[in-house]
Amino acid sequence: MSALRAFDSCGDPFTNGPVINNACGQLVSQCTVFLMLLNSIIDNNEKISRDSKRVTPIEQPKSSYDFIVIGAGNAGAVVAGRLSEVPDYKVLLIEAGPDEPYPAQVPSNYFIYKETMYDWNYKTHNETSACGVSDGVCTWPRGKNLGGTTSHHGMAYHRGNRKDYEKWVNMGCKGWSWEEVLPYFLRSEDNREIDRVGSKQHATGGPLPVERFPWQPRFAWDILKAGDELGYGITEDMVGDKITGFTVAQTISDKGVRMSSAGSYLWHNRKRINLDVLTEAYASKIIFNNGTAVAVEYVKGGIVNVVNASREVIVSGGAVNSPQLLLLSGIGPKKHLESLDIKVVKDLPGVGKNLHNHVSYGLDFTVDEDEEDQQNNTADPLHTYLDNQTGPMSSTGLAQVTAILASNYTSPDDPDVQMFFYGYTATCLNRDTPKKRQIRIIAVNLHAKSRGELTLASSNPLIYPLITSNDLQNEDDAKVILWGLHVALSMPNTPTMKKLNLTLVNTPISHCSQFRYMSDEYWKCAMKWNTRTENHQAGSCRMGTDELAVIDPQFKVYGIKGVRVVDASSIPVMVSGNPSATITMLGERAADFIKADHPPDNKLL
User: Fold this and answer.
1) Within this chain, do residues 298 and 368 fall inside the same structural domain, yes or no?
2) Which residues are catalytic?
3) pTM of the complete model
């Protein structure tokens, strides 16, 4: 416990949440010390680290495998884990990053690893309608470790809704209706609150633990009450019969501890001799022989290696890495590949196209802290969390509160706005500040019409691709966000928020001074200047049947043999909500498709 005593001497920099004017002295150094000490403490706390359950990566793969899965993120871990159920299959999972860090298991630490070795730290460029404050460069944090971004995000469990999958079918994705995908959501799910949400739309026994966090600030429930007072209602289950309203979301977590895709699909398979996991190995090219994938080239420790694949290569790098790898391998627009002297294996013009994301804008408010949360302020969240995985560190504060709403631009059964909230997180706190909290209310457009693209900057696989999101280029996207901002601006007028003195504290943006402050035109200018990207990137290797489709409805890349793309890049149009559960469903379905094409001789493990 010496590390814990050392942490105490730091003055508890991580407690119950941000208070207005919170400014811990030497914040960066205190946070760095905290993470180092917390890592040491959690390393010896099996209930949090789950160290004994983790995968032990191999140092050197065998020369050949039946299946090679590239990317151990949201989908890749699912595919590899499910394929390893077949004793006949020899499976290699290649991940560019290391194992997920121990402190990432703590829910309050979501996205603390941004711009570290666990983050790809991608940047877009040449944005003309977004991220003006940073000269048209938007930041896209993406997880670079076992579990990918599921080791860093807010853990919300959502599936989109029936209409989302109808759109997929209408785009040529036969077999992807709601009725056809629901069984795969149920297969993956272990809902710990089945008595509350019911078994009609939920299941137990799957690898994905789904439950609410053990702790919510009192203000979370005040938000729900205010949403109800505005007429939007409260829903117990965003994926149930009532898909709109305000709620405290269920999350992909296990008794106050994060559960990544690696935790859900790899940890319990760690002793299978037919599954190898290779970390810190960057897949640089798929090698083909007469149009059939036969091997994967990868870089580890600065050395280029090759491993053979006798059946299939499954690409699960995500919306950035997957199209990049296809392009590097000679699959993509012919002219673009030839301009970089890359041998064309298959001319597929849709690779890297259709790239889109959920985009948002947030407003800052202050709120008077109520008595219950003031009492939480004096608690010791670190010791509470280490003891029983409850308290503020067992949650994401207000980030677990959300709302799915239908704006004036859509129908009630096809909601297009999500409201996010931020505040009351276990972060740096100066206890000498006034008894006010600063919170943020964020309006997200779930039905973005703007489309971007990804191209290669070089044939060198270690050089990042060129990404242009074109966020907010379509003016309809700004209109939807604006509708959500009016919802946020109406909250201080509710009886509940009047009692708590919810007050807008946004500082006017000088760049938008030509518009009257708080007018619609001002907010449109503001969101294009200080754009918030939600890191739900998708669509860059999309499924479909038209000329820009990259994969067929069973994830097979058109025109070649032995390659599938299974991840968010496969999604034709992003679902109306947090996408992690949907990407897990993709992995579940893909594993079934692969097994059907390669019938196993032996029973499943």
Assistant:
1) no
2) 536
3) 0.94
